[in-house]
From TrEMBL:
Pfam families, per the entry: Acetyltransf_3
GO molecular function, one term: acyltransferase activity, transferring groups other than amino-acyl groups
Keyword terms of this UniProt record: Transferase
Chain ranges of the N-acetyltransferase domain: 2-153
InterPro entries in the record: Acyl_CoA_acyltransferase, GNAT_dom
Entry keyword Transferase: yes
SUPFAM superfamilies per UniProt: Acyl-CoA N-acyltransferases (Nat)
Protein known as: GNAT family N-acetyltransferase
Source lineage: Bacteria, Bacillati, Actinomycetota, Actinomycetes, Micrococcales
Presence of the UniProt keyword Transferase in the record: yes
Amino acid sequence: MITLRAVEATDLDEFFSHQLDPRANHMAAFGAKNPSDRGVFDHHWQDILNDPKVTVRTILSDGDVVGSILAYNDGEVPEISYWIDRSHWGMGITTAAVGQFLEEVSERPIRARAVADNVGSIRILERWGFTEIGQAQGFAPARGAVVDELVLELQ
């Protein structure tokens, strides 16, 4: 059973352990340059949790913390982002969590970005009705390189 709830302080330890996975960092691409720096991680998460323009939830699978999902608005429309522990990829958890989150965050349009080679994330977003509206390039700290991104939008 997949559920979402408000982030609790103890969730941050789980989120930190998730970001230590090199393969997950490569796929996410825009994570921290040094994912093992707990100080940077804690500062980043305090910014998220203290920002009233951010809606953030912990993703639970059968009661276990498996990831996070959030929407932030630093431009013209909100943007969704998520991170799932790699040991839970391919189980439908992210798909279910995105669907639940989109019911809670009903503002439309809403956008998402995915590195062009992150096929799994792109499929999840398309499953919920997101369509590609553009492409961008950006420096991905986790890859140490400029990457191509798809910009997707849900009306």
